[in-house]
What does this fold into?
Amino acid sequence: MTKQRLYSGMQPSADSLQIGNYIGALLQWRGMQEEYDAFFSVVDLHAITVAQDPEHLREKTRRTAAQYIAAGIEPSRSTLYVQSHVRAHAELAWILSTITGFGEAGRMTQFKDKSQKQGADATSVGLFTYPILMAADILLYQTDVVPVGDDQKQHVELTRDLAERFNSRFGDTFVVPKPVIQAETARIYDLQDPTSKMSKSAESHAGVLWLLDEPSVTAKKIMRAVTDSEGSVRYDRSEKPGVSNLLTIYSALSGRPIAEIEDEYAGRGYGDFKKGLRDVVVSEFEPVRARALELLDDPAELDRLLAVNADRAAEIADATLATVYERVGLLRRG
Ligand code: AMP
Ligand code: TRP
It folds into this structure.
């Protein structure tokens, strides 16, 4: 039986990924790459919907790709590439934009939130059409499943609507993809503000564990994580968000159930618990960080790997795009 196809991606929005990206995305992707024919992109065209420094964007793109590989996405097994290396993404996005309703795009909550914060004049049209580009990413590869966080679910629903609309208007062309929504247990919160999701774009970095931080920095951030005055290591998301978050991280990285970790630290203080967590995180990150830095030390080799993968992606994407051009009635070049 042929494998189902999987597609996901992340923006190159920081020099380092944070532990939420690692647990919530990379670990899941790594686990799925055997069962699925998986495609993972670094979505640089999405990143430029907000202003970027050109040199820094290039650097962040390489760094993000290196961290995918270092975390165990294998470029010989999965197709791991940079979105802008495959031209079909921008081309299909244009075609899909012509069958997307203005009101339909306007209902995307991520756009509404971001544009409300920035104001209409500071918001680019690219930010408005961002979900259409995401639909193009997914549909070009005839994707069956799309693992994402729940903030992206609405974009995958739009993708499904566009695929169905195109298919009914122009004939069966696209596979209609299904979202796979990240489990609540894979959601990581800021160590200093454990009711907000940990984010690459957090204003303060004190509560963010970066994959590429020095181990001593990671250790310090864990030892200083916000807890509570009760003093007992137990999971209670609403009453004890800080400790619960640390337990989630501990469990996700050690593979041990939360109850077992609670038992281990029963009657011991937060200091002991944090030291235990520190050891788990530092030993998980250490080889990943070392491998990422090694890859970044040889950018020519990394670029070569990405080029090979982009060729593999382009072959599939170009075939889909050719069918789309044909179906919508664009005159074939003689
Ligand atoms: P972002 O950094 O927001 O572009 O997210 C990229 C990917 O990492 C998405 O699949 C998110 O669901 C996942 N992710 C980001 N932050 C977290 C977090 N705090 N906890 C769990 N997953 C996260
Ligand atoms: N918009 C997604 C995010 O911010 C990233 C993304 C772009 C994506 N294209 C995709 C995710 C296609 C899944 C499939 O997280």
Observations:
- The longest strand covers residues 5-10.
